[in-house]
Request: fold
Amino acid sequence: MKTSHWIRGAVVAGTMLAACAGALAQGAKFPSKPITVINPYQPGGGTDTIVRLLQTKLAQSLGQPIVVESKPGATGTVGSEFVARAAPDGHTLLVNNITLTINEALGGAPRLDIQRDLVPIATVASSPVAVAVTTQLPIKTLKELVAYARQNEGKVGWSSCGNGSPQHLVGLRFAQTMKVAMIHVPYKGCSGAIVDGVSGVVPVLFTTTQNADAQVKAGKLRLLAVGGNERLSFQPDVPTFSEALGLKDFDAEVWFAFFAPKGTPPAIVAQLEESILAAMADKEIQKGFTDRQMSPRVQKSQQLAAQIKTNLAQFKQMKSDFDLKIE
Reply:
């Protein structure tokens, strides 16, 4: 065991030295070639959308094309591990979300240690978790939902985008806090949950405003509450959990952020952070996020690192409290 650790450490050290030596030999400033951003999920989702919103502005700022490549699998773990193993020269980056911390805390990514294998660059957005119901139910407020669930104890189904998803954990925490017994129905992705929510098969949904938006506008789903500390500019009529039920500090948002492989030089991380933050200050880009039901949420590298530490502790505690596992 000790020998294998030594060999692995030597290989990693050798790779880092080779990358640094190559950079010195080139004498070139960063970036010296196109930057590839790995989206660890299927194309078209939230992480993919984020990169494409920032793509042109970042390319202009950094002076190199930004290439988006999807590497889905194992709830984002495949793509995340790919970036963790990439050369630490700033030319291969990861965009991921809070699921990264959930996977590690719940044991779904045993080979990936976020704080060891990745360098946080910046947070750029958040998508609030929302509670929605089919309009077939005569429920218009979160208080009415709680009353309905108590009147039908153990009979009301609620959906999430999958076991171990942010929506699942928010739903568990909500049910525990309000002392209501409902039946969790996990889906493999969010779209199936939306379809069955509209039809009334599983009438209560823990989802995001982004996922539910089209059906809310069509009058088939009703938003009851959203996560976060204040109302959303793009959903001003929907109360927060705190407003709806007096639940203080009920943080229920999915953050999205950029990462680099561990060992990436601090000067390169700082340059990437600066370019990303400058792009996020652009009003048109901010509008692009809100038009897609996402809130611009900027955190610098150190703030993101602190966020990750907090989330890991939070989700490890939930794993213990609810005996959670990612299969």
In short: The chain has two domains: 30-126+256-322, 128-245. Strands lie at 35-39, 66-70, 92-97, 118-134, 157-160, 183-186, 204-208, 221-226, 253-261, 295-299. Residues 2-26 form the longest helix (25 residues). The chain is about 45% helix and 20% strand.
